Amino acid sequence: MIWNPTKECMPREQLRELQGKRLQKLVAYVYHNVPFYRHKMQEMDLMPEDIRGIDDIVKLPFTTKQDLRDNYPYGLMAAPKSEVVRVHASSGTTGNPTIVGYTRKDLAVWSEVMSRCLSAYGVTRDDTFSVSYGYGLFTGGLGAHYGVENLGATVIPASTGNTEKHVRLIRDLRITGIACTPSYALYLAEVVERMGIKKEELGLRIGAFGAEPWTEHMRQEIQERLGLKGYNIYGLSEIMGPGVSFECQEQHGSHINEDHFYPEIIDPVTLEPLPAGQQGELVFTTLTKEGMPLLRYRTKDLTSLMPGECPCGRTSVRMTPIMGRSDDMLIIRGINVFPSQVESVILSMKEFEPRYMLVVDRVNNLDTLQVQVEVRRDYFNDDIGAMLNLKKALYDKLKSVLSISADVKLMEPNSIARSQGKSQRVIDKRVLV
Ligand code: ADP
Ligand code: K
Ligand code: ZN
């Protein structure tokens, strides 16, 4: 189902025209209401009138997370306090949280884009949908919550925690859909299994998974264990929260709600825009936001855009799965390593749980990488020979994918801490010295 065909299936030319109009309005708005942007534009000798269409976006200054921190808490707010009705904060995965503010219209746009996502997954008014992102300052809980309500499905504000009670609710209330992090979905599957409940007793059909990177293997694993179909949802608090992009039934890239969030891909080093299809850093301009609109915000997320038509009928551009953040890329002995690469190796082997931890250290001036991974109960035993073979098999695979050798440490089932929100998978001891 397409929630808003007028916007979601708009002919590209018309869409670009709309984006251009919105950009012109936005630039004039921030120029007059946000001293930070006015000064930046003045430094660049740029007037709002110089922006005549969406192609002129490249003339505008970038915004970084550091800019948000420097202007903490409300320095980048464009709307007067009387118009701001809600405040959230980013989860602070990579440092101090940053604050964002929403006007009533911003919240309406957010609900609208969330409803587009949920409709694309096949959620209807007859569904009962559990929101198991954390409620609170984090945008996941409330963002998904209002989207479900706006669509007209029944929302169960389960949040995280008390997972056994949640499982019983899923069964007893015939909950059909769930929004949560992929790591929480796996944890939920474990609890369901531990409680001796069969996935068929649960009526789950749809999962909206996001807030952290996940792989195709992880999708298969969750789908098999919970008996549902898992769809990607992407977003970040600086731009809105969940609902910036979403997978349709084709599950071939995530459609960006482009009439509200204009995407660009840049080279993170030269800051030059990259041609379509090339991988780089994702940058967003909030075309319609009133509370805290941002020009060319550098997300640090690495992806590429997929131009071209999607068989679903939506005309919006799609993005490939996030392969990591430019700031969670580890440089080990000069080689770039992404936690997601390690994850896909681990999940491609049936002996392992999708539970792992990367420990990076420096010993005698040499970077070391240790991969700790949980062995599945069925494969964990006292047979030292078998364990050594398993260790060697993982070592070899990691070496061929990462091009560096990692020390492998096999862990007992259930020994790595479970996460209910975003999981922490890297300990870099080098930054502690
Ligand atoms: P923080 O940057 O503090 O984690 P947020 O809570 O706003 O703040 O999280 C947004 C970030 O979460 C994104 O920039 C991205 O790195 C990650 N993220 C969100 N959804 C997805 C997704 N579907 N796939 C991969 N990463 C995601
Ligand atoms: K994150
Ligand atoms: Zn599509």
How would you sum up this structure, described in words?
The chain is α/β, with parallel strands linked by helices and 433 residues long. The protein folds into two domains: 1-323, Rossmann fold (3-Layer(aba) Sandwich); 330-432, ANL, C-terminal domain (GMP Synthetase, Chain A, domain 3, 2-Layer Sandwich). Helices cover 31% and strands 25% of the residues. The protein has eleven helices and 21 strands. The protein has helices at residues 5-8, 12-33, 35-43, 65-70, 104-121, 139-151, 163-172, 182-194, 216-226, 339-347, 384-402; strands at 84-89, 99-103, 128-131, 154-156, 177-180, 206-210, 229-236, 241-247, 254-256, 261-266, 280-286, 297-303, 305-306, 318-319, 324-325, 330-332, 335-337, 352-363, 366-375, 407-411, 426-428. A nine-stranded mixed beta sheet has the order 4-3-5-6-7-8-9-14-13, sandwiched between helices. Helix 5 packs across helix 6. It is globular. The model has no long low-confidence stretch (mean pLDDT 94). Bound molecules: adenosine-5'-diphosphate, potassium ion and zinc ion. Residues 91, 93, 212, 422 line the site of potassium ion (K).
